[in-house]
Automatic annotation (TrEMBL):
Residues 152-293 form the Protein kinase domain. It comes from the Eukaryota. This is Protein kinase domain-containing protein. One of its GO terms (molecular function) is protein kinase activity.
Amino acid sequence: MGPENAAVPNCAPDGARASPPLENKLINYLHEGVVAKEQELNDTYDDDDYENGWAKNEALHELAEKAILRLAALLFEQKAPSAKTFPKGLSVQDLVWHPKVHFRLQTIDGTAKIFEITPDQAVCAPEREILPGPDASFTPDPRFPMHSAGNIQVLKIFDSGNGPACQVRLDDGQVVVPKTLPNGLKSDDIKREMRMLVAIHDAEARLGISVATPHLLGYVTHAEDPDLVIGFLREWVPSSSRLGATLECVPLAKTDVDTRQKWADQIKETMDDLHDMGLSWSDCKAANVIVDE
């Protein structure tokens, strides 16, 4: 199985002043990052070494994460569930409600170590358990199928600041994108997005048009309760363009004027279609525009 903890020396040569314990350094990194973020919000940030408070916060958090991974990557890998735990692959249910393992970083006899501890030994801010629950105000549209989170296989996980973002495969082989949060429909954002997707579906049929946005394909239910809706499935839009997966990735300065104008016209057409439906796109940015050809 290998070592049960990981360690790096944190001592100074004879006659030299010992450096602070690693955990103190990491706490300082995280504290400085939080302060920089607050200063950015309060418009008091002043540090020429970073572009802004958000950048400083991200850079310092990355330093702390890298230090921890250098110290305990092998330990984390050993403690992570093995492939045998998920014989059919990782499911959306596994991804959203995964078991938690607690670790401690501590300098002992001049050596920084990371080792597993029990949940009752953890010293951290209390974390409120987030669980999904039924929502009396929501009624699933019967035109869209239900899919159990336990039967949706995760293919690829992307970075996301608001719940897991991933590409998944359904039982019939269809590749789609789920949107599920640990608290399910307790999230007003996810309910609002589902309502908008249904509204787009109905408006397309009524107006005889097809809007260039991913379409609603179905609902996701909790694996242990087939009546408990926790999210939805939408189209996966593949990018076959060699220029970049999203408009943000495209080097526009190197893209010919005709192509840029075509994209601008397509975006305007989509926005006009949404406005005709009485809807608006609140997160209109280049990172959310997929270049599919």
